[in-house]
Write a structure and sequence with these properties.
The complex is a heterodimer of chains A (258) and B (357). Chain A has 258 residues and is α/β, with parallel strands linked by helices. Chain A is built from 7 helices and 12 strands. Chain A has one domain: Rossmann fold (3-Layer(aba) Sandwich). In chain A, the strands form 3 sheets. In chain A, strands 5-9-6-7-8 form a 5-stranded mixed beta sheet, sandwiched between helices. In chain B, strands 7-11-6-1-4-5-12 form a 7-stranded parallel beta sheet, sandwiched between helices. Chain B has a 5-stranded parallel beta sheet with strand order 15-14-16-17-18. Chain B has a 3-stranded antiparallel beta sheet with strand order 8-9-10. Chain B starts with 18 loop residues before the first strand and ends in a 15-residue tail after the last helix. Chain B has 8 helices and 18 strands. Chain B has 2 domains: 191 residues, Rossmann fold, CATH 3.40.50; 124 residues, TPP-binding domain (Rossmann fold, 3-Layer(aba) Sandwich). Classes of the chains: A alpha/beta (258), B alpha/beta (357). The site of flavin-adenine dinucleotide has 28 residues of chain B, from helix 6, helix 7 and helix 8.
Chain lengths: 258, 357
């Protein structure tokens, strides 16, 4: 599962509407999703696996689809329909799960740990729940052997090593591998091969189930994050003794342990 | 309850009551984010005269259940089985989704830790609920009992307020380190309902082969954090930072590039992709103040920065700015603090200012 996102380095926000100014923002493939694709391709290198890329997004996600084919994917399907627009994580997962189900049999679904634009990390597990399969999230060092996936999960306080039989959904950590490049040769082949665009009918979902209408949550408003005003009082070397005293008087520096 | 189903709105919103929170544990101990959830959940429950219900799963959870009550939990809804002592997606999400269907909570909060995120979306899909990820502000509207779930977006420059009007429960995952841990009240009374469960084998196919615990510096609980950045110029700079931190009884923090350089380990990183801290004193040494770093420390009570560049972005987030070479300024700071500790001046008149929100 691969998503096209605005390039996070150059996000431009319209000062009037407070919305993302899409016309000024370049689109790229979500970086963790490149790691997800690479994890799939590494399995393909060693087995006779067939790799299909699935995405939900507007027609301009075409460039991401071609890019994935040029990196070595066998097939690319873009679920694209005006009804899919404005989806929160629920209908996004629903649409991707329905698309995957319509494709047919699978052993492993790879996703990124999160997207750079919505950064929820919820879509992967959501798809797994819709499909009724197990999952391994925040994975690095993913290995497949004899119907089992073994991976390391990076948690806040340590590394968990898990082993799960397929079918399973794996979300891959950003930078957990080095995505291969697209070769010019493959790029030409990819453009020639092309990708498939599926609408709600083909995916098998009703218009009111997906996109904004199928979303339990709505954005009520957006506001700029206002920071607490701070004095930024200037201090030079000679002023440090007074600063330390002032901080002590205010209880910021203590002479005894808390 | 898998299946490709759309999210049906609920018929009667009034059927849904109380605030649920999920208490994450490790090796049968409550984790700090669990306590943070109790704090924010309690505040909302009280606001609408409802109960705070804590969901707790594990191998042996009796002590943790009591602990949760002492932090303010009204009801502990527990499931106990030896196979639940380690978190696994399928048994946890099934058991908790069943709790949700039986008990019908209005709100359900889960910490946005890695396992919390692993779990939350499964429950939301299973129960056809709406979920808002990684919230930094949470509130409940008194009359409608609608959850106002606020999360940073667009590279942390904007705050989006997200509502879920017609689906229940209203779920949210909450960013660790943002919400304060509540005071413990030993006399607080609560009801503990723990049932022993048997878990179907089909849900236990995932084997957890090992857990390699790493020593983590818990920056989130520190009262003083002294952080170093690229301005240190070399790995040895962190020993100076370490000296200052230990003199102040604090811990060492770092920016991401200084971690990437290998000057210090990742568990010291503060910021969007590191830890979120809110100490009494944050000292930023040789740090430019890019938004991804600011995110993780802006709620500190007092912020002091040391930077040669008077126009560095960190300036506007600082209460005090030492515009000097850190290799000159930090030794003076050290010396002055040592002097102060030897002969503290007359008694402090005022105690610490009120903590940031
Ligand atoms: C998706 C994403 C996530 C990120 N997450 C994080 C995160 O969690 N945490 C984080 O910290 N960063 C994060 N970053 C990186 C962040 O954008 C900045 O690059 C980083 O915070 C800058 O680190 P720095 O201040 O150490 O380095 P610099 O920006 O290079 O700043 C060094 C500063 O030191 C000053 N200086 C130089 N020499 C001296 C001296 N002798 N004495 C005093 N001052 C001196 C300079 O004036 C300068 O201001 C993230 C970036 C991205 C894109
Ligand atoms: N519209 C989409 N199309 C394809 N994959 C997606 C889409 N949205 C999310 N994903 C996948 O789900 C992961 C987590 O996304 P998120 O929950 O938005 O952080 C991403 O890294 C992708 O692999």
């Amino acid at each position: 599962m691969v998503k096209q996102v605005p390039d996070s380095q150059e996000v431009v926000i319209d000062p009037v509407t407070m919305n993302l100014n899409r016309s000024l923002t370049r689109n790229v493939t979500n970086r963790a999703d490149e790691n997800a694709l690479e994890a799939a391709l590494q399995i393909k290198d060693r087995t006779d696996a067939h790799v299909t890329v699935v995405s939900m997004g507007p027609p301009q996600a075409e460039t991401t689809m071609i890019e994935c084919l040029a990196r070595g994917a066998d097939r690319a399907i873009l679920a694209s329909d005006r009804f899919f627009g404005g989806a929160d994580t629920y209908p996004t997962g629903l649409t991707l799960a329905a698309t995957i189900k319509a494709i047919g049999k699978f052993d492993i679904i790879f996703a990124g740990e999160e997207t750079s634009d919505s950064s929820t990390g919820h879509v992967g597990p959501g798809v797994a729940e819709f499909l009724g399969i197990d999952q391994i999230t925040y994975a690095s060092k993913v290995e497949y052997k004899d119907g089992f996936v073994t991976a390391e999960r990076e948690l806040e306080d340590g590394t968990e090593v898990v082993k799960v039989p397929t079918p399973v959904l794996v979300t891959v950590l950003l930078n957990s591998n080095v995505p291969r490049r697209q070769t010019l040769r493959r790029k030409i082949d990819a453009i020639r091969q092309g990708f498939e665009s599926w609408d709600h009918d083909k995916v098998g979902l009703q218009p009111e189930w997906v996109g904004v209408r199928g979303s339990p949550t709505i954005v009520r408003k957006m506001r700029p994050i206002k920071e607490k005003e701070r004095a930024a009082k200037k201090v030079d070397i000679a002023g440090i003794p007074d600063l330390v005293k002032e901080l002590y008087q205010k209880g910021v520096i203590k002479v005894e342990s808390d | 309850m898998a299946g490709i189903k759309f999210a049906a709105p609920v018929a009667d919103l009034n059927e849904y009551k109380n605030v649920f929170v999920f208490l994450e544990t490790r090796e049968d101990k409550l984790m700090r984010p669990a306590l943070e959830m109790i704090g924010v959940g309690k505040r909302m429950a009280e606001k609408v005269n409802e109960k705070l219900v804590c969901v707790l799963l594990g191998g042996d959870i009796k002590d943790q259940a009591k602990e949760a009550v002492s932090y303010g939990c009204d009801i502990v809804l527990g499931a106990e089985s030896p196979v639940l002592s380690t978190y696994r997606t399928l048994p946890y999400s099934h058991i908790i989704s069943d709790f949700v269907r039986q008990e019908k909570p209005n709100i359900f909060l889960i910490p946005a830790t890695r396992n919390g995120r692993d779990l939350a979306s499964r429950i939301a899909v299973s129960c056809q609920a709406g979920v808002t990820a990684d919230c930094t502000e949470l509130d409940i509207e008194q009359d409608t009992r609608i959850l106002s779930a606020n999360r940073p977006t667009y590279g942390e420059s904007m705050l989006a307020e997200i509502l879920c009007r017609k689906h229940r429960p209203q779920m949210a995952t909450a960013r660790p380190g943002i919400f304060p841990v509540p005071e413990r009240i030993k006399s607080h009374r609560g009801e503990i309902r723990i049932k022993e469960v048997t878990v179907d084998k089909s849900m236990l196919k995932k084997q957890v082969l090992e857990f390699r615990k790493k020593e983590v510096v818990d920056l989130t609980a520190a009262k003083v954090v002294v952080s170093g950045g690229m301005g240190l110029g070399k790995p040895q700079g962190f020993s100076l930072i370490g000296d200052l931190a230990s003199e102040l009884d604090g811990v060492v923090g770092a920016t991401r590039p200084s971690v990437d350089m290998g000057w210090i380990t990742r568990d010291h990183q503060v910021g969007q992709t590191g830890q979120t801290v809110r100490p009494r004193l944050y000292l930023a040494v040789g740090i430019s103040g890019k938004i991804q770093h600011i995110m993780g420390m802006k709620n500190s009570e007092t912020i002091v920065s040391v930077n040669t560049d008077p126009n560095a972005e960190i300036t506007k987030y600082s209460d005090y700015v030492i515009t000097e070479d850190l290799y000159k300024a930090v030794p003076v700071l050290l010396e002055e603090i040592r002097k102060l500790k030897k002969s503290p001046p007359l008694q402090v008149q005022e105690t610490s200012s009120t903590p940031a929100q």
